[in-house]
Amino acid sequence: MKKRFLKISLTKNITYSSLFIAMGLLLPQLFHSTETIGSLISPMHIPILICAFFLDWPFALAVGALTPVLSNLLMGMPPYHMMLIMAFELAGYALTANLIYTRVMPRLSKRIKPGIINIYISLAAAMIAGRLLGACVAPAAFSLFGAAGYAGFFVYLLRLFTGGVTAIVLQLLLIPPIVEILKRYTVPVNTPAPPAAVKPGEKDDPESLKQD
User: Fold this and answer.
1) What is the rounded distance in angstroms from the CA atom of residue 165 to the CA atom of residue 201?
2) Are 20 and 47 in contact (CB under 8 A)?
3) 7: which residues sit within 8 A by CB, 6+ positions away?
4) Which site from 83, 119, 142, 183 is most exposed, i.e. has the minimal number of CB atoms within 10 Å?
5) Are 75 and 28 in contact (CB under 8 A)?
6) Sign of the CA dihedral 187, 192, 197, 203?
7) How far, in Å, CA of 26 to CA of 30, rounded?
8) Alpha-carbon distance 96 to 83, whole Å?
9) Whether 112 contacts 71, CB under 8 Å
10) Is 24:44 a contact under the CB 8 Å cutoff?
11) Helix H segments across the chain?
12) Per-block average pLDDT, block size 10, for the chain (212 residues)?
């Protein structure tokens, strides 16, 4: 029975991963025909952030890291130095959102059923962590591929946030409702752990309050 469950889980992870990678490759092609719109909304980020709520963390991490690499190899974009930066940045998005949503939030909100507020918190944390990771990798990426335009860690980090304000707002508005809708019609592989049960005798236990 356990082997069968693991096989089904692996199949779902691989199937979902393939779909999210495909979306990560196709969406930029749709929006980058108008370069201004594409740079404003960062379309590749959207499926990567969504995948974090449906895949186990190793697969979410792999989708985030592989999508910009495959895009560079198949579509010729992003350029090599940005490919490396985005591979780390998007992997950071997927891993952070996944772990916070499935591991951290259920522990912090023991009596709150995982819902849309958990998605918002996970997304916000992922956007910060991913950009920090991308900024850390940027010096090596610019140097390795001989790209110009790097002006230092803090300047580059500031650009990642200020240049992506429109994308951040759009993603925070769109992704949580999309995730909630998709969860109604699909079965995520990475269902968050159930809230921990409160042990009898704890201060905030209703029965213990009555006894007091």
Assistant:
1) 48
2) yes
3) none
4) 183
5) yes
6) negative
7) 7
8) 20
9) no
10) yes
11) 2-31, 35-41, 45-51, 57-75, 80-99, 105-108, 116-144, 153-162, 165-185, 206-211
12) 61 93 92 68 93 95 97 92 95 96 81 75 95 93 87 85 87 93 77 53 47 45
Provide the b/e sequence for 179-191 (b: ≥16 CB within 10 Å).
beeeeeeeebbbe
What is the distance between the alpha carbons of residues 9 and 127, in angstroms, rounded to a whole number? 27
Structure tokens at 12: 């779902």
Contacts of 109 (CB under 8 A, 6+ apart): 118, 195
d(CA 135, CA 115): 31
187: phi then psi, degrees, rounded to nearest 5: -115, 105
What is the spatial distance between Cα 176 and Cα 181, in angstroms, rounded to a whole number?
9
Q: Cis peptide leading into 78, omega within 30 of 0?
A: yes
The pLDDT of residue 211:
46
Please give the structure tokens belonging to residue 191: 């269902």
